[in-house]
Write a structure and sequence with these properties.
The structure holds two protein chains of two kinds. In chain A, 0% of the residues lie in helices and 50% in strands. Chain A is built from no helices and eleven strands. By secondary structure, chain B is an all-beta fold. Helix content of chain B is 0%, strand content 50%. In chain B, the strands form three sheets. In chain B, strands 2, 5, 6, 10, 11 and 12 form a six-stranded mixed sheet that branches. The chains are: A mainly beta, B mainly beta. The A-B interface holds A 2, 4, 41-43, 45, 48, 56, 58, 90, 92, 98-110 and B 32, 34, 41-46, 49, 51, 87, 89, 91-93, 98-101, 103, 105-106, 108.
C-alpha cells in the first residue's frame, strides 16, 4: 500500500461528458502529480501541484484541469470527453518540491476511465 | 532535451532465466536514474535508484549500475520468477528539467513457468 488513495477506481461515461477524479496523497506529502497511461502503457505527465500551487505542467489538454485543496487532496477534471481520453489516470505524491525532488514518487492504483 | 530510451517489449523469458532490460539516457550534467515497476492492476513503485556515476542500485534481486561513459542504466536479474512479470519503467531526474521525472516508454516482461 503506497498510501496514495484514488477514487473512483473505475468510471464509464459517454463522449461529451465531464468527470472528476480525486486523489489523496500520502500523509505529509505536499506534492501531487497526475499522469495518464494509455493502453500501449506509455506514461504521460499531466501536471504537478505543490502545497496548493501549480508547479509544473506537462502535456495536459485544455479540456483538462486540476487543483490541489488546502487539505492537500487533489482533483483532476476532464471535460468534453472524447473516446481517446479512455485511459488509466494515476496520481502520485512526493514529499519534495520540484527542484529538490529526489525522484521517488508514490503512486495510487489509478482510476480507469472508459469513454463510450 | 533530456530523454530516456528503453528496449521495446514484450520480453518473454522462462523462469530462472537471466534478465537484462536496456535503458539509455540523454541528459546534461549528472541526472539521478530510477527503475520503477508496475505489477498488473497496480500503480508504479520505485524498484531501485542510483544518484551518481558508478553507483549500483539493488532491490529484490534486481540490480542496475549507473554508467556515465555509456549513458546507460540497464536492469538485470540473475534468475527471474513468474512473480517478476510486470512493466518496468526507466526514468531520470535532472537539474535542467527541474528534477521532473523523464520516463522511458516501459518494457513489459512476461515470465513463463
Amino acid at each position: 500500500d503506497s498510501g496514495v488513495t484514488q477514487t473512483p477506481k473505475h468510471l464509464i461515461t459517454a463522449t461529451g461528458q465531464r468527470v472528476t477524479l480525486r486523489c489523496s496523497p500520502r500523509s505529509g506529502d505536499l506534492s501531487v502529480y497526475w499522469y495518464q497511461q494509455s493502453l500501449d502503457q506509455g506514461l504521460q505527465f499531466l501536471i504537478q501541484y505543490y502545497n496548493g500551487e501549480e508547479r509544473a505542467k506537462g502535456n495536459i489538454l485544455e479540456r483538462f484541469s486540476a487543483q490541489q485543496f488546502p487539505d492537500l487532496h487533489s482533483e483532476l477534471n476532464l471535460s468534453s470527453l472524447e473516446l481517446g481520453d479512455s485511459a488509466l489516470y494515476f496520481c502520485a505524491s512526493s514529499a519534495g518540491l520540484a527542484g529538490t525532488n529526489t525522484g521517488e514518487l508514490f503512486f495510487g492504483e489509478g482510476s480507469r476511465l472508459t469513454v463510450l | 532535451g533530456d530523454s530516456v530510451t528503453q528496449m521495446e517489449g514484450p520480453v518473454t523469458l522462462s523462469e530462472e532465466a537471466f534478465l537484462t532490460i536496456n535503458c539509455t539516457y540523454t541528459a546534461t550534467g549528472y541526472p539521478s536514474l530510477f527503475w520503477y515497476v508496475q505489477y498488473p492492476g497496480e500503480g508504479l513503485q520505485l524498484l531501485l535508484k542510483a544518484t551518481k556515476a558508478d553507483d549500483k542500485g539493488s532491490n529484490k534481486g534486481f540490480e542496475a549500475t549507473y554508467r556515465k561513459e555509456t549513458t546507460s542504466f540497464h536492469l538485470e536479474k540473475g534468475s527471474v520468477q513468474v512473480s517478476d512479470s510486470a512493466v518496468y519503467f526507466c526514468a531520470l531526474a535532472a537539474m535542467d528539467s527541474n528534477y521532473q521525472l523523464i520516463w522511458g516508454a516501459g518494457t513489459k516482461l512476461i515470465i513463463k513457468p
